[in-house]
């Protein structure tokens, strides 16, 4: 199936060809695009944060995976097809058509802040992991990872992001799945079903309002996200955009399962027999649950591979954040406000 509409804008051309020239079959194209959207969603903050939330608050209060799942599906059903059929380049295009440049500039600032804070969270996840396993200082880990990601994103743009996302997703899956058998069979872990009351958590009706607030924020916050739209707007049709959203949502939920198990392990393990001496939760180190479980309950080689999975998750999300914010600035702000003819 050949694309009949060849694009007028270079940014759109990059978005289109980065996902379409890899293979000649529709199935393989959608599969590779699905990997890029999954790698973007499954970031370091998503992986580390889920394990932390399971260990500290329980599954009942771990709302990010379910919110992202529903948010991506809603985005696909309600927005992806319409925006792709209108040949938009960024998520700000419809706002710019209706409300003009001034309001779009304000919306862009809000989106930029979101990307900056999100990038900071995933870099923090990487820094804590590296500091636990290989004793790399937090600052060095963050600066090095940022530099590598910025360089390959600037040089290759969307093409490099698409290729690296596929490799990173495979590494994420391999690293986390590889670690699970070693963790679950460790003599200091035991049967996690015995601590299910802890890691499943409880729901107090008096906190129902707070629960719904968090759930709505996680769900609706997934939709106005340029990293997501730059994927769905690169496919050939609105229908494919919808399919990509639903498949990407399902993949994100599946890929978080290792983090859920690791969080459950943290609540059941006998930390007194480890070098740590106490559980991370007792030491107020809940944010380091995932790397500490890898360090204490897997062989060193497996722990390093698991760390590599976290690093890949960070880079796969960070490059999309950089490209998303920069493309909105270039196309919607710079070209429309400062270079108007």
Automatic annotation (TrEMBL):
Q: Which Pfam families match?
A: SSF
**Alphabetized UniProt keyword annotations:** Glycoprotein, Ion transport, Membrane, Neurotransmitter biosynthesis, Sodium, Sodium transport, Symport, Transmembrane, Transmembrane helix, Transport
Q: Which PROSITE patterns does UniProt cross-reference here?
A: NA_SOLUT_SYMP_3
Q: GO CC annotation: what is one?
A: plasma membrane
Which spans are transmembrane here? 59-80, 101-126, 132-154, 166-185, 205-223, 243-266, 297-318
UniProt-recorded Gene Ontology molecular function terms: choline:sodium symporter activity
Q: Which Gene3D superfamilies match?
A: Sodium/glucose cotransporter
Q: What is this protein called?
A: Uncharacterized protein
User: GO annotations under biological process?
Assistant: acetylcholine biosynthetic process
Give the similarity note.
Belongs to the sodium:solute symporter (SSF) (TC 2.A.21) family.
Q: What is its membrane topology?
A: Multi-pass membrane protein
Lineage of the species this protein comes from: Eukaryota, Metazoa, Spiralia, Lophotrochozoa, Mollusca
Q: Where in the cell is it found?
A: Membrane
